[in-house]
Every structure is written in C-alpha cells, then in structure tokens.
Amino acid sequence: MHSDAPHVLVIIQNLPFRIDRRVRSECRALTDAGYRVSVVCPQENGDEPARFQVDETTVYSYPPPPESRGVLGYVREFVVCWWRTARAAARVHRDAPFQVIQACNPPDTYWLLALLWRLRRGVRFVYDQHDLCPEVYVAKFGRRDLLYKALLLLERATYRTADHVISTNGSYRQIALERGSVDLSRSSVVLSTPDAGLMRRGDPEPGARDLGKHLVCYVGIMGSQDGVDRLLAAIEHVVKVRGRTDVRFALLGFGDALEELRADCTRRGLDLWVHFTGRVDHAAIGRWLSSADLGVTPDPPSEFNDRSTMNKTLEYMAHELPVVATDLTETRRSAGDAARYVAGREAAPFGDAILEILDDPDRARAMGLAGRARIEGELAWSRQAETYVRVFDGLTGRSRALSEERG
Hints:
alpha/beta, eight-stranded mixed sheet, globular
C-alpha cells in the first residue's frame, strides 16, 4: 500500500476482527480500492500479538476486560475498552496518521474519541451502526428506564458527531433520519451481505451427519434476546411430541446466555440431539453450514428484531440452505422466498415448520437456490462495497481527485 494512500482507522468493541464478517468485508473493500486500513479491536485469545496483519489490514488488539454481567458490569466494560481503544488509536496515528475514523457499534461511546481526533487533527468520522442500542436494551431487560434514556443520548451524540452514517438496512436508516435528525445526504445503507465468492457451500464438517438423517444449524450470538431458548423448546417439541429422533441440531456461537442454555438443554433431556460448538471461526461455520439441511432464525418478535437484518439468515442463504425464521419485517426483506416464516413466539409452530421443510426436499432445495440467487444478485456484496467505498471517497476528496486524474 502506498504511504500516501488515505488511511482509515476502524474501531470494533463487541467482536475480534477475524470473526466480524461485516467489518472484514468492509476493510477488504477499502484496501481493494487503494486505502490503507487499520483496525483496533479486542483480542480473540490471550496469545494474540498486539499488532498483526489480516488480509491487507493492520490489526491493533488489546486484552478485553472479563465478560460482563449486569448493568454495572457493562458500564465498566465500556469504560475499560474505551480507554484501551484510545491508547491504541494514538499508537496507530504515530505509526501512520489516519484521516477517517469508522466506529462500529455497539456501544455508542466512540463519538467522543472521534470528536477529540477531529478537534486535534481534523479527522472525519463515519458511524457504522450495526445495532440499535436502545432497542437492544429494551429487548434484553424489558424496561425504558434511566439507562435507556442514557443510551438514547449516546446514540444522538453519535449521530450528530458523525460526518456520515452507514446503516445496515432501511429500517435502521429511517431511525437515523427521524430519531437522529441525520440529513439524507450524509446517510447510506450498506447491507451485511456475505461475499458470494468467499462464502458458499463447500467441504462438510467431519462427523456432523453421523448421528441423524437431518442436520439443522443455528449460527449467532446467544443472548437473552436471541430466541435460542425458544429454539430449544421447539427442539423438545420435535423430539418428544412429534417423535422425530432423526434430526440433530448444531448451535454455533457464544454469548452471555450460553451456559444457561446448555443447562436448559440438559434439563429438557435434549443433549443427545443438540450440540453446542461454542465460539467457532468462519472456516468452521462454513463446514457446518455446508453439512446442514436447514438454518433457523428463531429471534422473537420485538421492536429491535423487527428492524434488524440477521447475519445468520444471510449466511444460511449463501450456503443454499432453506430457512425457518420468525416473521419479522427485515427478515422478510432479506430472505424473500428462501424462508418459511413463523408468526408469534410459540415454540411448537416453529418446530412444526422445521419438520415441514425437512420432509419436503424438493421445496427445501428450491428455497435454498432462491436464497443463493439473492446473495449473488439483488443483495450482492459487490453492490454494497461500491456504496461503502463511495462514502470514504467523498470524505477524503478521493473521488474528486480520481475524477480530475481521469479528466
């Protein structure tokens, strides 16, 4: 990368860079377009060096604080991560001055760091909004109290500080325009679509299909708002009410509810049919999804889930899997005919829908092909990448420079 190329600093807190598919795709789009990119994020493991390369991106990692529980624990985590990120950002700038900071939420706390860099060095700020933090809080804790109001204030400060706001779908953009008073000219939608050339059906996970005729996969975070408890209840219905012992379920991912979910699985007597993998990398996710017959998106109805695009749904579609999903607005927009939608929160209809698709292989195959076609066509990452890079071209003046060079 040329030393005079525009330099972008990307900040992540909730995931290590290697396993954040959206951010890795964004960084690859920038480096492919000639940008220099650095990322500050928490370490994936304790052996990870403080600085290393992934693709053409330089990663600066810091030791994350212990996993948090409760409101005070989350506040402490945010403060510790903010300080460690600020120190890492200073190191990045010493190594190579950056012209743009992109902060990926959650949390909505890095607007202050971006503001300090703007005042000191004229650095521009891009807000890549992955989650609606106030709505996540309501979905997780069921209340709109003082902390909820504080989250709204942090979100508003982030919107107002940002030179440009990137939303993951139209529903999020509408929040930015209405609640955040963001001007349309400084907002864009960049879907979290997988790169069809990189994410596709391939080699299976060894032994994944040894114990059952059918394999169903869940991929994602396991928190109280993600519906994995409902999925376990649906599996219990499949096994104990419908008597289907020929279906196995692989639950891939991690989160603050993982251990509770493992205990619930044991309590329900489902350990023979359910396998929790814990945190796995992209290669392992690809192998499991390449082994599966169906993917599930059990996130329950809520304001947050209804407005959110589920990455797991898109990843199932990229692997040609039919999807059984809760009937949510953005899920329908993403999946179209690739999904069988289940209304409400009840577990039994969700379990019945799983069996309905598994027992109709022709329909399942057609749904899988429809999903893959959407990933390659209407939702293609190449289209998202063009929109994404244009944001930085505009902020750095690179689009004008390229236009003058061509002229």
